[in-house]
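Open question from group meeting: does this chain pack into something compact, or does most of it stay loose? Before anyone orders reagents, we agreed to write out a predicted structure and look at it together. Recording both the input and the output here so the notebook holds the full record.
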Amino acid sequence: MTEQIIALALAMGAPESQREVLEPLCAAASEALTAQLRPGVTPQDCADAFAVCAAWMALDGLSAVGGGGEVTSFTAGDVSIQTGGSGDTGGLTAQIQRLMAPYLRDGGFYFQGVTG
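C-alpha cells returned:
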C-alpha cells in the first residue's frame, strides 16, 4: 500500500524531486496509522481513507523539512488541504482524525460517575 500512498502524495503536489524523502515518510505514516487502527481493522478495510490520510501525513512531514510548499490547495469532497508555509498542522491533524475516526481506536477520554 506504500506505493499507492506515494503515488497519491505525488498527485497531491509533492515534487518528484523529493521522492527520496517522501518514500520513508509515506512508510512511516502508514505504520503510524496502522498502529492506531481498532483491533480487527486492517488498512485494506479502509483503503481509500487510509491512503488519503497517510499521504496527508507524509505531505505534512515533507512540508516540515521544507519540501512541500508547492501544494496550495487540494479538495476531496468536504475535505480540503492547503499549504503555504503557515505551519498550521493542527487543522490537518483534525481532518485526518475525523476521516479515520470510524476505523481508529478511541483515543479520547470519558467521564465516569463516581458514587460519593
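Observations to bring back to the group:
The beta strands are 74-76, 79-81.
Residues 2-100 form one domain.
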